[in-house]
Design the sequence.
């Protein structure tokens, strides 16, 4: 990434607008070796539309110094012939990007260089060991030169002895350094641990929100929220949301950014989905698609974004379901119209697309 920071652009998205496209693709038959797929019923399609929109609306807005370059994507779970009617799963995936504010990045660079200088200083041999090391090294080099001269003179026995002598002296020389490194290992490991724990100046954070899935244990570079029942009940879910899990993964040292994304989830809104069907008209989304924040806004946001770092990228959280991209929405042309009217219009359009 270069130093030219494009101005932030923002596009507001309606989950109902996205739902029209998702509904056409989310229940497409999926080829699985152990699953004979079936078509979704009309009730399942309606439930899937609502669930998709509710999950999209629950995704967090980008915290300070972060941005969302592409809209979150929804994937519906595969419906097999033996899947009970109403037994639906859904997953939303999004990738948030992060760039540390310039002032904080400069401070971090200085801290990193100081720690690297301390590690190099610790690895340097003290004067007495340096003299011992250099003396043995000089003898090893001399033996090697004599071996080369013996080779040129076709004196193979002498060349072999000198090569063996050079190798043995080299092992003695390296043992001097190993002795020193073993002695300073506790101090070196402590400094190196601080160096490794420094947060990344640039990073990508994957956010996954699952409905009616299976509980997963977060790893060292992840943070999560769990609400409801895991695993979901057997014998059909009855068109209900039984459990939600949000998982945020990213660079190990950037715990502050992971926690900021976790804090961005509206837990009350998520809790309201548990043990009931999704609402007919979900709340407006909090997130927006845009580019990196400008240098000025990033600098202003630095105090709010500052937080202690935790433990060292990480792979995106794994999902078993294929993802379906959300069609990008056009930029808003003017002030938002009434939310209820928007939802009603979008629902009518959605029904038209589904042939209802």
Sequence:
């Amino acid at each position: 990434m270069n130093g030219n920071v494009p101005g932030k652009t923002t596009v507001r998205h309606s989950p109902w607008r996205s739902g029209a496209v998702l509904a056409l693709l989310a229940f497409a038959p999926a080829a699985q070796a152990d699953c004979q797929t079936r078509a979704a019923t009309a009730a399942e399609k309606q439930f899937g539309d609502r669930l998709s929109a509710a999950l999209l609306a629950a995704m967090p807005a980008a915290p300070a110094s972060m941005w969302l370059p592409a809209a979150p994507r929804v994937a519906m779970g595969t419906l097999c012939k033996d899947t009970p009617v109403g037994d639906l799963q859904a997953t939303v995936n999004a990738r948030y990007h992060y760039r540390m504010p310039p002032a904080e990045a400069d401070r971090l660079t200085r801290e990193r260089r100081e720690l690297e200088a301390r590690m190099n200083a610790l690895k340097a041999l003290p004067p007495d060991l340096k003299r011992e090391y250099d003396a043995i090294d000089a003898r090893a080099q001399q033996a090697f030169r004599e071996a080369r001269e013996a080779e040129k003179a076709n004196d193979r026995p002498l060349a072999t002895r000198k090569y063996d002598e050079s190798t043995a002296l080299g092992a003695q020389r390296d043992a001097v350094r190993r002795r020193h490194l073993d002695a300073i290992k506790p101090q070196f490991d402590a400094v190196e641990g601080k160096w490794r724990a420094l947060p990344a100046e640039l990073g990508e954070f994957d956010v996954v929100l699952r409905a009616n899935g299976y509980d997963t244990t977060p790893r060292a570079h992840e943070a999560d929220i769990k609400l409801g029942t895991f695993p979901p009940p057997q014998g059909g879910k009855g068109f209900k949301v039984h459990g939600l899990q949000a998982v945020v993964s990213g660079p190990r040292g950037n715990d502050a950014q992971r926690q900021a994304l976790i804090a961005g989830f509206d837990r009350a809104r998520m809790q309201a989905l548990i043990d009931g069907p999704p609402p007919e008209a979900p709340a407006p989304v909090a997130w927006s698609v845009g580019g990196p924040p400008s240098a000025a806004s990033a600098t202003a946001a630095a105090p709010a974004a500052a937080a202690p770092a935790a433990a060292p990228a990480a792979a995106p959280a794994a999902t078993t379901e294929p993802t379906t991209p959300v069609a990008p929405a056009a930029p808003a042309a003017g002030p938002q119209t009434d939310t209820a009217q928007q939802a009603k219009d979008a629902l009518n359009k959605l029904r038209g697309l589904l042939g209802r």
Q: What stands out?
A: The chain is about 45% helix and 10% strand. The first helix runs from residue 15 to 25. Residues 1-32, 298-340, 349-356 have pLDDT under 50 and may be disordered. Residues 107 and 206 are 26 Å apart (CA to CA).
